[in-house]
Amino acid sequence: MSIIIAENLSKSYPVAVKSPGIKGTITHFFRRTYRSIKAVQDVSFEIAPGEIVGFLGPNGAGKTTTLKMLTGLIHPSSGTVKVAGQVPFQRKEAFLQKITLVMGQKQQLIWDLPALDSLRINAAVYNISDKEFQRRVGELTEMLSLEGKLTQPVRKLSLGERMKAELLAALLHRPHVLFLDEPTLGLDVNAQAAVREFLRDYNQRYQATVLLTSHYMADITALCQRVLLIHEGSLMYDGSLDGLLERFAPYREVYIELAQPLPIEKLMTYGDVKLLEGRAVRFMVSREALTRTVSQILADLEVIDLTVTEPPVEEVIGRVFQAGVVE
Ligand SMILES: Nc1ncnc2c1ncn2[C@@H]1O[C@H](COP(=O)(O)OP(=O)(O)OP(=O)(O)O)[C@@H](O)[C@H]1O
To answer: Which UniProt key words apply to this protein (predicted)?
Structure first.
């Protein structure tokens, strides 16, 4: 039984069109004409309880718009959504109790107050008893390593601490479904890892369902077994991360360390040379040619070390978006 069901979800935004020049400006002032931008087109998917799904796409692909429809902030132009058995746009209490939306670039904690004060407001909104409040804050503080930070004004916290406090606030009502839009945006590598670690922990502890967008592929590879890929509003791929690589990266990287340096012209006969540094060479080799190429390299050249790896996920996805491969 799916906890998130999106069927043929579409969203168009009207945008005012203005002709250039002073005449255009005057006409625009009195009589506006609009054209429609299709931000999301016919997107369907289902997510099972407890899954962590990565939502990927280049800037402007329609990720935030989809998340806004799933959380009931905007109404779909067409199609249907159900989250935890509810229609999001109705914003019923039973729905709001079960979900949370965290946007990396927005904050809900009040800047000049200690986070604990904002948390008390949330506890009142969600009807959480004082005893339960203490218990949940204690537990989340420990999971997020935020000891001693909640009593300081939010403006005095580091970016990473603030993001963790935001997560604490967003999870106080113990939602079943987490919509996370760039939760690690702007954080340094350590803070990113801490947030990731926490999300994994939280998912396991509460079997929470997570739909996550991130421009940091490390978030996706660390947390998500399944990804949705959206491009220009349409869903291009829904499946495992491994499957994505299989489908969109029909090549492997072959790294060799040679006993003696060789000229690039000679090396190029074995494959596309991506890097040549002294005796170290990295080739890109198509999957079909892999066995043949590796055997040939080992037969022809004096090789000290050889490894074959998948190309980095970022690179594969970057290529997919650049080429606009839609199947
Ligand atoms: N309120 C709005 N009015 C008009 N157009 C909008 C509005 N919100 C988004 N858009 C447009 O819809 C498209 C999808 O935007 P959306 O914010 O969903 O993309 P995104 O995938 O989240 O991008 P990013 O990774 O940059 O956040 C873009 O072309 C954007 O300009």
So the answer is: ATP-binding, Nucleotide-binding, Transport
